[in-house]
Amino acid sequence: MGIENLFLGFQQALAHENLLYAAIGIMLGTIVGVLPGLGGANGVAILLPLTLRMPPTSAIILLTSLYWGALFGGAITSILFNIPGEPWSVATTFDGYPMARQGRSGQALTGAFTSSFVGALFATVLITVFAPLLADVALRFGPPEIFSIQLLTFSAFVGLGGGNPLKTVVSIMIGFILAAVGLDIVTGQLRMTFGFTGLMQGFDFIIAVIGLFGIGEILLSVEEGLSFKGVSSKMNLHVVLDTWKILPRYWRTFARSCLIGFWMGFKPGGATPASFMSYSFAKRFSKNPEAFGKGELEGVIAPETAAHAAGVAAMLPMITLGIPGSPTAAVMLGGLIIWGLQPGPLLFTEKPDFVWGLIASMYTGNILGVLMVLAFVPFFAAILRVPFAILTPLIVVLCAIGSYAVHNSMLDVWYMLIFGVVGYVFKKLDYPLAPLVLALVLGDMAENALRQSLIMSQGSLAIFFDRPIAGVITVVAILFFMMPIIGPWWRRLRGLPVSAPTPREI
Amino acid sequence: MRAADSITASILMALGGIVIFDALRLGIGWGTDGPGSGFFPFWLALIMVVTCAVILLQTLRSRSDEKFVTLQQLGPVFKVIGPATAMVLLTEFVGLYVAAALYLGIYMRWVGRHSWITVIVLAVSVPVLTFMIFELWFLVPMPKGPLEDWLGY
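ok -> structure tokens follow
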């Protein structure tokens, strides 16, 4: 059944208008990925209102292509400007920028894009194989299993997210509490509105994404006093072909990074740790590790392959379980609901054309993407040379338009501004934003799953341990939650050095 | 950094307190058919308050001279947030397109010191282009004011 469905999916993905949407999405996505203050998540959020009248398959192709584009865009700024456009491209700057300074920017960029493509393709193949199987299993999930998966999602942020785990917990709680504001659909009571009618509609996570990531990010970048000193890109067909000739030599790095990326990526918050882990593994297994950090092609290949494999793998839990693995996937999940689709395993049986169109578009989108970025690098690099005083108000206006369009409400635009300031403060104080957004998205689902489970068990928490699947997942989740406590203790016991704090995902 | 960290943790604790208060009003125990409306928020807020208290202790015990923000950094931040707030306020009265045009123009001239030609061309063309994309092609309405009324939209 798999092959036929994939074939049907390709018919969707290769339709002329969908290829056009993919191209537009990649173009916009790369621009968004290059620009400071805009990333995959809020790019998708701002574009979402425009997709209301599109067929859902075209809409998701447009939005996912934007996501692929944003992933590619991060590499351009990392290599040419030493500015990681996205957190997962930080590791790419280590060797990418030195290469560009040595006049090997073409080689670095070609290497980065090709690795991204390889990582993405690998993850897409795995999604093609595993998504239907996982969806089949997920169909049998009841409320306790759903709640335990939610626990696992958030425990991954606490255990693997890096930074101060306590602050991660606080961010998650804020997200869930914001999600609970407004009408409780189970009992019909108003919660935490304190008599303000404005609070009755609750907080929409799309507004939160636009404010936290869009406005917050701009405030952070102006504070740092932006000055872009870029190395010009030297790209031509000759460089591309020459680089492609030497890339197969690094097949071991490719294979290792693909696996790391996919493994880290289907858990939330995985792309950034995946890129760092892949970089350090490449360095450890290299014959000349001292060349790393000074412009080694392998140091660009490893993080880019892993980051893209992780970025694509983040789509797996979204389409099979209805649980997004990243803020961008969360916004897309919001899109599914707006287009009238029910995210989760039922999609595979009820809307096969949509799911398989989406999976097929991952292949076409990434092929189209790598060709487009290779061809248009100078154009994308030129965007960073647009003066900041022009970019800033443009981005603010786009954010305002995007927030208003979600519910046609001016109140949302005010919320967006407030979220912007909160995002700025939180980011400076190391409160992570991604778990907050994910909790805001999943809040109602988590609460319903918890309530229904407790009704099933007459109020006993044992239900999360008694059922085999839920039990295993809950135990793993608890382990992840305990990781910040067990980790240092375990290291001391084995006489290992205390690990350096890892940087935050977003 | 310490001051900002402790203030944030304290504010979050206070907010958590308000949530707990409201959750108690709604009922945190077993309702007629399952956990009450206040059950989930109560436990969330409780975890948040306790975690914030630990963060507060951590912060007070730490020694860090790092500044949260310097005055030099705060200038540009206010230069962004001030005009942006003014634009949103203006949108309430004159609609988004006119507010965006004024905001773009004033910001580019005041902060960027770009030439009048650049300023006027961009401040006019961007709102006109967004108007075409949103109102005409994708039929997504934006807040409009007297100018759009006068033009008949």
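The longest strand of chain A covers residues 182-183.
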